[in-house]
Amino acid sequence: MALNSGRGRPAEGGSATISDVAQAAGVSRQTVSNVLNAPHRVRPVTRERVEQVIAELGYHPNRVARSLRASSPGMVGYRIQPVSTESVAAINDRFLHALVEAGQAGNHHVLLFTAADTDAESDHCTALWRTGAVSGVVLYDIEPHDQRPERLIAAGVPFAAFGRTAAGTDRYSWVDIDNAAGTEAAVDHLVAAGHRRIGFLGWPEGTSVGDARARGWLAAMDRHGLLAQSHRLDVRGPDAISTGTCLMAELLDRPEPPSAVVAATDTLAVGALQALRDRGLRAGEDVAVVGFDDTAAASALGLSSVRQPIEEVGRLIMAELLRATTGPADLDPLQRLLEPELVLRASG
């Protein structure tokens, strides 16, 4: 059998890797792993092709890593990130808890680590995989042009992501929230309640989540024919309570202030509530406020908010990693977009 146009051969003087074998044989890295560790799950014709490539390239698997994976419960790597003191968000904590619970059901556990940035995170994930410390990794907070998925694909590291990039999403497994649908639902509710001037407190442009939530507000306002009279009510800033207070105060100082606002996060919404209190205004009566994420703070403050199905995200992502490391080979990657839910309280 001939290799694929010479592709997949190791560099001069280098050792062949499992990624070299996968590329040369025209299969996934997981298929190569299955040929080595669970050959009964691979079709005979595919298994023979991979075995021939292994022989031609002289590939020698990392026996220590394989031994570690085979002799202990699976470990899933996950980078934890610091939470800002100006934030009320607990999505990361909820997601981590959901991952741990889902993993325990499949005899998998979560290995936490820190990294200075996304490049360091990719390197750490690759090192953990190659040494056999983890059977896969989870990526969190994916940005439009995030390089982590491509880097892990190139390194052959099994992973699943919470969020997705702007392109190339067919090449890896992801679960995401329909953030635009969440802010659309908030606007629809406020319009049904009689509001016509509805402001938006958002993040600066350039993030997957922030931009999607802004698009939802824009689409709903346009659909209801309210965009022309509300175009100057879209204000942006960093995700902090103090930012929400400043942005809300700015809107209240306009000649025609909004009667309602949708915030991209509960953090910004909590800041908006403070601005209303500073003016002697009542949330839900003088100005309606709707947040996003349905944090514990939202419940405590009577803040209407859009709830993400975080527990379902964690369950799906962990199930996908278990499938990738123990299930049948050559299955299509998971690609799931989940609907959020508007939770109504006293604020609007």
Strand order of the largest sheet: 2-1-3-4-5-11
* Helical content band: 40-55%
Overall shape: it is: elongated
Q: Percent of residues in beta strands?
A: 15-25%
Major beta sheet summary: 6 strands, parallel
Shape-level CATH architecture of the largest domain? 3-Layer(aba) Sandwich
Topology pattern, helix = H, strand = E: HHHHEHEHEHEEHEHEHEHEHEHEE
CATH class of the largest domain: Alpha Beta
Tell me the CATH superfamily of the largest domain. Response regulator
Residue runs with pLDDT of under 50 for 5 or more positions: 1-7, 67-72
Average pLDDT over all residues: 88
Number of strands: 12
CATH topology-level name of the largest domain: Rossmann fold
Number of domain units: 3
Count of DSSP helices?
Answer: 13
Class computed from helices, strands and strand pairing: alpha/beta
Q: Whole-number radius of gyration?
A: 24 Å
N-C termini distance: 68 Å
